[in-house]
Write a structure and sequence with these properties.
heterodimer, A: mainly alpha, 14 helices, globular, B: 15 helices, 0% strand
Chain lengths: 343, 334
């Protein structure tokens, strides 16, 4: 069994690497189809639309932009695998340095938002399934169809307006109270750093700032979990072992939450990876609305500044993060449901 | 596993008739033969559900108005009479009237003020209505092109299989690894500004899901008896694809496509919110909301009202799509 799992793991890992290379090929192909000439590409790398022909020629030479496409592609892939994502045209530092600073903040936000969203989704999905075609089912459906259809920024605005400005419960914008001295950077993410350093004042402030954007991400994303969770729960509730549990005289709550729920959760694991991609996309707008200075906020600034290398670096990093999330989800799935290892 | 399994899971369901309904219709076939396809069947099916009917009315009104407004704007630019562009609107959406600045939503000056006015004193309702052609065009063109491209690539890869299929599927994997919004940002920024550039960007990134759908359909259909029969009959692959596979795979796509038109409007609004594809002098829905950000929360309606309008339109699409999905999934039967 162990070797079987090892084989499965290796195959998934190879698959993930191939998908990452194809992702790079995709970004590279789009880049070269949309920006065919070396001069235009050099302009993108400098970030200076009025660069002199001499300066452009130097950049073309330095980056081998007039080399055959396959040479450029191998160069591009090897650069990315060496952690070279280009140089930012505004801050004049390597993109990877900027990503190191901002990525943990966004990841923390997205992961926490995702956990909240999945919990809401599982709970509402199970309630809807247990009360199939009755009022709670329709109520849940109305709820998730509405949140699902609302634009991300509207969710952010409404939460800010109600919670931060009318009720005055939480701060509306920012990552943390800027007057507080930050703890030593270990992970780079404010909440976990404060936790590691034991700096509770900072932790409390960061947590307060995190709640609204994290809930905004959760609210926008939980509908998919509710929908698939409901279907999978209904499927589980029709199984013989659930009927057996009822026959044994267990209460409805025990059957729904104890027996059916655990089995219904398995398909959700794969869904979480899909949702992760969606949440990272949504985080760009959420961070803009809440002025939460993570990678999304940085990307919005890059859009305003025509900072193409930053946008491309963000695209590649997001893609790789999503592929890795998929990989982890596959492994978790195999752990939860040993049957899939055979395929 | 992974994304592909989710999509396959979403698709591989019995088409239209479930066992139950088959039994029911089987009993009544002698009396009246139910027509279970065609536009009239779908319309009749939607009409039987109040929510879906509401959605259909909203979307119908939206599309008709967008068409009229679009024609008027074209006429205005062709005849060089800008006022034609706002003939159907309560007020001029582009004129600066600072004396009416920041009026909250009210019934005064009905209907111009129901969503309030913005910093320039323009009626937010007028501006939103003025921008309808862009959103309607985006939803129809992006989903339409995605269906066409996906149909061509997906059906071919599913039907022929082999290495073409393998490459296609890994390519769609790579596309689907990127959130639509992020990929659209990267492509739109590279193509350059403007509405058309944004349309192209969305068209480039939108087809992979549909390729998956059509591939899954082709995989199940290629082993059907009538396809075998056509093969034995000596039909060419092209003829089999065009005559048998494609017509039979379109139906399950309709529900998803309806939902997806809402998603296109959401993505489009998100991009416009970030200032991508926005041209000056044209009030995009997302851009309107972003413009209100600096006056938030005091003049809250400036950024919230455009969002509410987007939500209403997308919910309407969702209601129709959800209803159609019930029909295709066979969960509701008549």
């Amino acid at each position: 069994m162990v070797s079987n799992f090892g084989l499965f793991l290796t195959r998934r890992a190879i698959n993930a690497v191939i998908t990452i290379i194809l992702l790079l090929a995709l970004v590279f192909a789009l880049l070269h189809i949309l920006v065919p000439s070396p001069q235009a590409m050099a302009r993108i790398i400098t970030g200076n639309p009025r660069a002199s022909p001499g300066a452009l020629a130097a950049i073309i030479k330095a980056n081998d932009l007039d080399a055959p496409v396959y040479v450029q592609f191998f160069r591009y892939v090897s650069q990315i695998f060496h952690g070279d994502l280009g140089t930012d045209t505004i801050y004049h530092v390597p993109e990877i340095q900027i990503m190191k600073e901002y990525l943990p903040i966004t990841l923390e936000l997205v992961v926490i938002g995702q956990i909240i969203g999945v919990l809401i989704g599982l709970y509402t999905g199970a309630i809807a399934a247990a009360n199939r075609n009755r009022a709670p089912d329709y109520g849940m459906k109305a709820l998730y169809l509405t949140t699902w259809s609302a634009p991300v920024f509207l969710v952010g605005f409404v939460m800010q307006l109600v919670v931060a400005y009318w009720l005055n419960l939480l701060p509306a914008t920012g990552v943390v109270n800027p007057t507080l001295p930050p703890p030593a950077a270990v992970t780079g993410a404010p909440l976990s750093d404060a936790l590691i350093a034991g700096n509770w004042v900072y932790f409390w402030s960061a947590l307060q700032h995190l709640i609204l954007p994290a809930f905004a991400i959760a609210v926008v994303g939980f509908g998919l979990v509710t929908r698939i969770g409901r279907a999978s729960m209904i499927d589980a509730l029709d199984r013989d072992y659930v009927k057996l549990a009822y026959m044994k005289g267990l209460s409805k709550g025990k059957v729904v939450w104890g027996t059916a729920f655990r089995n219904a959760m398995i398909p959700i694991i794969t869904l979480v990876a899909l949702l992760f991609a969606f949440s990272v996309g949504g985080a760009v707008i959420i961070e803009d609305v809440f002025a939460y200075h993570g990678m999304g906020y940085f990307t919005v600034q890059a859009i305003y500044n025509d900072d193409y290398p930053a946008i491309l670096a963000f695209t590649v990093i997001t893609g790789i993060a999503v592929i890795l999330a998929n990989f982890v989800a596959d492994i978790l799935y195999a752990m939860a449901d040993p049957r899939v290892r055979l395929t | 596993m992974g994304l592909s399994s989710i999509f396959d899971h979403m698709i591989r369901r019995p088409i239209r008739a479930t066992g139950q309904s088959a039994v029911k219709t089987g009993a009544t076939t002698t009396k009246k033969r139910e027509v279970k396809e065609g536009a009239s069947f779908y319309l009749e099916y939607i009409r039987k559900d109040k929510l879906a009917l509401t959605g259909a009315i909203i979307i119908g009104a939206f599309m008709v108005f967008a068409l009229l407004e679009g024609i008027m704007q074209e006429l205005a630019s062709v005849l060089k009479q800008p006022s034609l562009g706002w003939r159907f609107l309560p007020t001029n959406p582009l004129a600066l009237t600072f004396n009416l600045q920041f009026e909250p939503p009210s019934l005064a000056r009905f209907p111009a003020n129901i969503l309030g006015t913005n910093y320039e004193g323009q009626s937010i309702l007028s501006r939103i209505l003025y921008a309808t052609p862009h959103d309607a065009t985006a939803s129809v063109i992006v989903v339409g092109s995605a269906i066409l491209i996906g149909m061509f690539l997906g059906t071919a890869s599913g039907y022929f299989g082999g290495w073409i299929d393998e490459i296609m599927m890994r390519l769609t994997d790579a596309f689907l690894a990127l959130p639509a919004l992020v990929l659209a940002i990267a492509v739109a920024v590279l193509i350059g500004g403007g509405f058309t550039a944004l349309l192209y960007a969305l068209m480039i990134i939108w087809w992979p899901t549909y390729a998956r759908f059509f591939r899954a359909q082709a995989l199940t259909l290629r082993n059907k008896g009538y396809v075998e029969a056509a093969k034995l009959n000596g039909s060419s692959s092209l003829k089999i694809l065009v005559r048998h596979i494609i017509p039979n795979s379109v139906d399950p796509i309709i529900a998803y496509a309806t939902l997806d038109m809402g998603t296109v409007i959401l993505t489009y609004a998100g991009l416009a919110f970030l200032g991508i594809g926005v041209s000056s002098g044209y009030p995009e829905w997302g851009a309107e909301s972003a413009a209100g950000l600096q006056f938030f929360p005091l003049q809250w309606w400036y950024s919230i009202m455009p969002g509410v309008v987007i939500a209403v339109i997308v919910i309407a699409f969702t209601l129709i799509g959800d209803r159609l999905q019930d029909l295709i999934g066979g969960r509701t039967t008549y």
